[in-house]
Amino acid sequence: MSVENLVPYEEALASYDPVMGLEVHVELGTKTKMFCGCSTELGAEPNTQTCPTCLGLPGSLPVVNAIGVESAIKIGLALNCEIAEWCRFARKNYFYPDMPKNFQTSQYDEPIAFNGYLDVQLEDGETFRVEIERAHMEEDTGKSSHVGGATGRIHGATHSLLDYNRAGIPLIEIVTKPIEGAGSRAPEVAKAYVAELRELIKALGVSEARMDKGQMRCDVNLSLRPNGTEKFGTRSETKNVNSLRSVERAARFEIQRHAALLNDGRTVVQETRHFHEDNGTTTSGRIKDNAEDYRYFPEPDLVPIAPSREWVEELRAGLPELPRVRRARLQAEWDLSDKDMQSVLNAGAVEPIQLTIAAGAPADQARKWWMGELARRANETGTDLAEQPITPVQVARVCTLVAEGKLNDKLARQVIEAVLAGEGEPDAVVEQRGLAVVSDDSALGAAVDQAIAENEAIAAKIRDGKVAAVGALVGAVMKATRGQADAARVKDLILERLGVQA
Amino acid sequence: MPGITREEVAHLARLSRLELQAEELDHFAEQLDVIIGAVARVSEVAGQDVPPTSHPLPLTNVMRADEVRPSLTPDQALSGAPAAEEQRFRVPQILGED
């Protein structure tokens, strides 16, 4: 594999204007597949969730899943799309063993939803409108594993093995119109779009949209044209990018790679590319078939879908509060400035904070932990905040322990670290590590007496009425108890011993 | 004049991973040309008032409830497979050496 020639990012943008098209696949959270009653449960043994229909056996007939259609319409409505009055499924024919039927049931020129938009918020608070071309219904493919080659790669494999449990799981493919005018912010727009779309899908309740589980994945189409020109350049399509960070990195990498090719007077090959999480690069996949090579034709085994306007309006009326509206409400509830809310948003902390509050924590405490310790950790490890190995319920429990006076800030921090390190629930950590705040007078008494004895000069000042000096003694006790003492109680005890009224 | 060329048949054969001999290509090109011609004659008969259809029945919105039905057992599912391994369908090499 040759090392790609890259142009520095700023330099690439000085000469070229990126145009993107994003295709996002969302696996719906239905109980059954799109065209048969097989379960969609994850993690089942191979080929235990198949039937004659999803295996493409002769004589079987598909019937569409009503929730699949309903979910597609909801997504379309939430994306401000028009909903087709009449549309059909189509067969997309291709020769590859991931579909036992030898075609994928999809939609071609009659998508169920089309012509919409999604407004996304960039990191500086600016809003960018991404136009939606279409959202259509289709089905997922089976899972291949390649045997005999290096590290499971398809190249050099002697043969491949197929598990068709995933074949037929409902997918909605959401396709943007060409995204123009983003300039140097194109990678950021791509990331913000996928993030907003994920929030939207989750709010609709049609999928958990977990990118790490492949429930949502993004294909990044990107081309460059010389600044000031109109005509689109040749695009590459980076397939199945499966985290927000990777979407941004993939777009950035492709801009730099295309610019290098174009600067050298070479041409960009229209092809699919694979993104590599480990080093942020892409490598060549296959040369893409032309659309006509898929020999699309209307699926004769399925009848057309004609959603009545009554049904569509009913679904529209039932849409939940959408993420943008919800964020505005939460900002008011949490009493945050635009700037603070924007940082919460940029850190991906809206959801964790909201769930932590829902689990009983005060808003300021929930925000403090997610935006402090946990955001820092996510940053350091290059992971999404929501994927940290601690749950909002666990964070809320720590907040409660602090509120009850059982933990102080320093101890709480240790508990959080221990939970992150996999030591179990907060209460178990407190128990095992003996981290509870000591407020028992007999346990604190000795430490207080010692602190007074060792700091006679300070004690004398306090006796003379300089109550403010008590902080130094409290500090000494805290140090002696390795932070476990209840500071307020320690202060009371010291003042009591020295015969001073607080 | 609708029709299909020998080159188009060869291309379709490649997409379908069918290895056709030269004389087969000639033979199929001729046959497919006749079939396409016959279909084209139907299109000539159909006027503007006849909407294109992909389905003979006047039905729309046939849907099923999202309820799990029993699947095949893995043994049943794999019973028609030419080869199986680790409870999976085994297929020949997809791509050669890069």
TrEMBL record, chain B:
<dbReference type="GO" id="GO:0006412">
    <property type="term" value="P:translation"/>
</dbReference>
<keyword id="KW-0436">Ligase</keyword>
<keyword id="KW-0808">Transferase</keyword>
<dbReference type="InterPro" id="IPR003837">
    <property type="entry name" value="GatC"/>
</dbReference>
<feature type="region of interest" description="Disordered">
    <location>
        <begin position="72"/>
        <end position="98"/>
    </location>
</feature>
<dbReference type="InterPro" id="IPR036113">
    <property type="entry name" value="Asp/Glu-ADT_sf_sub_c"/>
</dbReference>
<comment type="subunit">
    <text>Heterotrimer of A, B and C subunits.</text>
</comment>
<dbReference type="GO" id="GO:0070681">
    <property type="term" value="P:glutaminyl-tRNAGln biosynthesis via transamidation"/>
</dbReference>
<dbReference type="GO" id="GO:0005524">
    <property type="term" value="F:ATP binding"/>
</dbReference>
<keyword id="KW-0547">Nucleotide-binding</keyword>
<dbReference type="GO" id="GO:0016740">
    <property type="term" value="F:transferase activity"/>
</dbReference>
<dbReference type="GO" id="GO:0006450">
    <property type="term" value="P:regulation of translational fidelity"/>
</dbReference>
<dbReference type="GO" id="GO:0050567">
    <property type="term" value="F:glutaminyl-tRNA synthase (glutamine-hydrolyzing) activity"/>
</dbReference>
<keyword id="KW-0648">Protein biosynthesis</keyword>
<protein>
    <recommendedName>
        <fullName>Aspartyl/glutamyl-tRNA(Asn/Gln) amidotransferase subunit C</fullName>
        <ecNumber>6.3.5.-</ecNumber>
    </recommendedName>
</protein>
<dbReference type="Pfam" id="PF02686">
    <property type="entry name" value="GatC"/>
</dbReference>
<keyword id="KW-0067">ATP-binding</keyword>
<comment type="function">
    <text>Allows the formation of correctly charged Asn-tRNA(Asn) or Gln-tRNA(Gln) through the transamidation of misacylated Asp-tRNA(Asn) or Glu-tRNA(Gln) in organisms which lack either or both of asparaginyl-tRNA or glutaminyl-tRNA synthetases. The reaction takes place in the presence of glutamine and ATP through an activated phospho-Asp-tRNA(Asn) or phospho-Glu-tRNA(Gln).</text>
</comment>
<comment type="similarity">
    <text>Belongs to the GatC family.</text>
</comment>
